Amino acid sequence: MPKVNIDYNSPLNADDTFAKVKDLLNNDESLRKIDSTIQCEFNDGQRTGIAKGSKFKAEMAVADSGSSSQVTIIVDLPLMLGAFKGQVKSTIERKLSKILA
Length: 101
Prior knowledge:
- By secondary structure, the protein is an alpha+beta fold.
- The chain has a single domain, classed as Alpha-D-Glucose-1,6-Bisphosphate, Chain A, domain 4 (2-Layer Sandwich).
- Helices cover 35% and strands 36% of the residues.
- A hairpin with a 4-residue loop joins strand 3 and strand 4.
Protein backbone atom coordinates (compact mmCIF):
# COMPACT_ATOMS: atom_id res chain seq x y z
CA MET A 1 0.00 0.00 0.00
CA PRO A 2 1.34 3.46 -0.87
CA LYS A 3 1.82 5.66 2.18
CA VAL A 4 1.39 9.40 2.53
CA ASN A 5 3.38 10.89 5.42
CA ILE A 6 2.37 14.30 6.72
CA ASP A 7 4.18 16.21 9.46
CA TYR A 8 2.56 19.51 10.34
CA ASN A 9 3.66 22.08 12.91
CA SER A 10 0.71 23.57 14.77
CA PRO A 11 0.94 26.89 16.62
CA LEU A 12 -1.59 25.55 19.16
CA ASN A 13 -0.80 23.46 22.21
CA ALA A 14 -1.09 19.68 21.84
CA ASP A 15 -4.49 19.34 23.55
CA ASP A 16 -6.14 22.01 21.40
CA THR A 17 -4.52 20.64 18.25
CA PHE A 18 -5.66 17.10 19.04
CA ALA A 19 -9.23 18.26 19.65
CA LYS A 20 -9.36 20.08 16.30
CA VAL A 21 -7.81 17.23 14.29
CA LYS A 22 -10.10 14.73 16.01
CA ASP A 23 -13.11 16.87 15.06
CA LEU A 24 -11.86 17.07 11.47
CA LEU A 25 -11.53 13.29 11.17
CA ASN A 26 -14.92 12.69 12.77
CA ASN A 27 -16.93 15.34 10.92
CA ASP A 28 -15.30 16.37 7.64
CA GLU A 29 -17.87 15.98 4.85
CA SER A 30 -15.29 15.60 2.09
CA LEU A 31 -13.75 12.60 3.87
CA ARG A 32 -17.21 11.04 4.12
CA LYS A 33 -17.71 11.60 0.38
CA ILE A 34 -14.49 9.73 -0.36
CA ASP A 35 -15.35 6.86 1.97
CA SER A 36 -18.71 6.72 3.77
CA THR A 37 -17.59 3.71 5.84
CA ILE A 38 -15.00 5.65 7.88
CA GLN A 39 -14.84 4.68 11.54
CA CYS A 40 -12.57 6.60 13.93
CA GLU A 41 -11.02 5.47 17.19
CA PHE A 42 -9.10 7.84 19.45
CA ASN A 43 -6.91 7.57 22.52
CA ASP A 44 -7.32 10.97 24.16
CA GLY A 45 -4.63 10.31 26.77
CA GLN A 46 -2.02 9.47 24.13
CA ARG A 47 -3.39 12.01 21.63
CA THR A 48 -3.52 9.38 18.89
CA GLY A 49 -6.18 8.09 16.56
CA ILE A 50 -7.00 5.79 13.69
CA ALA A 51 -9.49 6.36 10.89
CA LYS A 52 -10.40 3.22 8.94
CA GLY A 53 -12.57 2.90 5.91
CA SER A 54 -12.95 0.63 2.94
CA LYS A 55 -10.72 2.87 0.79
CA PHE A 56 -7.98 3.98 3.18
CA LYS A 57 -6.55 3.86 6.69
CA ALA A 58 -4.98 6.80 8.51
CA GLU A 59 -3.05 7.00 11.77
CA MET A 60 -2.73 10.31 13.59
CA ALA A 61 -0.62 11.47 16.53
CA VAL A 62 -0.14 14.86 18.17
CA ALA A 63 2.98 15.58 20.23
CA ASP A 64 4.05 18.51 22.40
CA SER A 65 6.65 20.82 20.92
CA GLY A 66 7.14 23.52 23.55
CA SER A 67 4.15 25.85 23.48
CA SER A 68 3.14 24.47 20.07
CA SER A 69 2.65 20.92 18.78
CA GLN A 70 3.48 18.53 15.96
CA VAL A 71 0.82 16.59 14.03
CA THR A 72 1.85 13.38 12.28
CA ILE A 73 -0.58 11.66 9.93
CA ILE A 74 0.22 8.52 7.95
CA VAL A 75 -2.32 7.53 5.31
CA ASP A 76 -2.30 4.07 3.74
CA LEU A 77 -3.85 4.17 0.28
CA PRO A 78 -4.85 1.21 -1.86
CA LEU A 79 -2.50 0.55 -4.78
CA MET A 80 -4.99 1.91 -7.32
CA LEU A 81 -4.97 5.33 -5.56
CA GLY A 82 -1.18 5.54 -5.33
CA ALA A 83 -1.05 8.04 -8.19
CA PHE A 84 -3.00 10.51 -6.03
CA LYS A 85 -0.48 10.60 -3.14
CA GLY A 86 0.50 14.21 -3.83
CA GLN A 87 -3.09 15.37 -4.05
CA VAL A 88 -3.99 13.56 -0.82
CA LYS A 89 -1.03 15.14 0.99
CA SER A 90 -1.75 18.68 -0.21
CA THR A 91 -5.46 18.36 0.63
CA ILE A 92 -4.75 17.19 4.18
CA GLU A 93 -2.13 19.90 4.70
CA ARG A 94 -4.59 22.53 3.45
CA LYS A 95 -7.28 21.29 5.85
CA LEU A 96 -4.82 21.27 8.75
CA SER A 97 -3.72 24.78 7.90
CA LYS A 98 -7.32 25.96 7.92
CA ILE A 99 -8.34 24.41 11.26
CA LEU A 100 -5.07 25.10 13.10
CA ALA A 101 -4.54 28.73 12.05
